[in-house]
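Q: Could you fold this chain for me?
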Amino acid sequence: MITNTGKNILAKYLVGQAPAYASYIAVGCGPQAVDRDLGTFGDYSSKNSLDFEMFRAPIISRGYVNEDGIDKIVLTAEMPTEERYEITEIGIFSAGANPSASNVDSRLLYGFTQTENWEYHSETLAESIESIYSPLDGGNNDNIIIGEYDLYNSGTPKDYPVFQTNADNRIFTLEDRVLRNERCRFLNNIIMMRGNTSDISVGLDGRLNVDSGNHIHLNGINTSIFDRQAPTDEIRFAFSLVNKDGGSFQTPDEVRVILEFASGEGASVEDYESARFEFALENGTQPGQFDFSKNRYFVVTKQLQELFKSSNFSWTAMNLSKIYVSVVDDGSPSEEYYIAIDAIRVENVTAQNPLYGLTGYSVVKSIDALPLIKIANTTNYIEFRFAIGIE
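A: Sure. Below is the predicted structure, expressed as structure tokens.
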């Protein structure tokens, strides 16, 4: 314990000891965590991980400053140059990874980039997912997602139930969409799935059932590593809800999503072995509901032991992933909305190590309580400052 040393000496001592508790700055894109109306922060003393970590950068500079009579430790890291990020949280870790977790440490599972080779599967065929990088309003300066125009068919809009685009597409920069947090945050490439891609119902047991419809599909996955994860480790699914008409303030009743790890295809789930990550988000302002009028970006978390598994399930037999989505309005899947799939992450929350952990955390925001944007192909630095004192 340090006593009677004075604040400046204590600050210098903590800077000198910084590698023991502060080697990396972690940057995340969790759900909007600061109330725009109140502007208040929460109590983060019990956090041991970011809501959705995007990357970690090594701390390259340590120092201290005195601002308005308050001594602060200053830690600085350089952000990756190439990629685009929207930042809502940062944390300090004592190391770049947890040595106790070994090869089952926290990691990105899917980033939904073009190189992952997701396919669109309808009831009759499998095809590559079309990429649209021109303005999604078709060049009309409108606020309605129409995909793109078919110039060989008299300017008729093409209809894409599933397509890839960029999070910085012009249509996502319009004010109403920005204020609702419709824009995805991790990297730039996203997969858009229309709200009626699948028809997902809720059974009497609360389980989600795919009654009909299509999905996106990734072959050749390797999930055997999950056999070595603890049942309490987590999968975190980041996505946003998007209105087709950005000028409309209409909100759906419910969002239903199934992420399925499967051993094969089939007419029904009984035709193959699988583990299902299922969730339904209901619109509303009551506890357990989500106010879609204020926030459209979500991170849904479930423990591995909460996945629904078939009777003969084995992680080593899984060779593909499938995602089904249904945005329900007035009791039916609606084509007036899209689900923009951002990223999926595995979080090891079980492997304990007394020399490793989250030693500092804060939500970050703009003056309008919006994410901070790091533009692609730019050089940026991030600072974490925290005040110190003696009691």
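A (continued): The chain has three helices and 26 strands.
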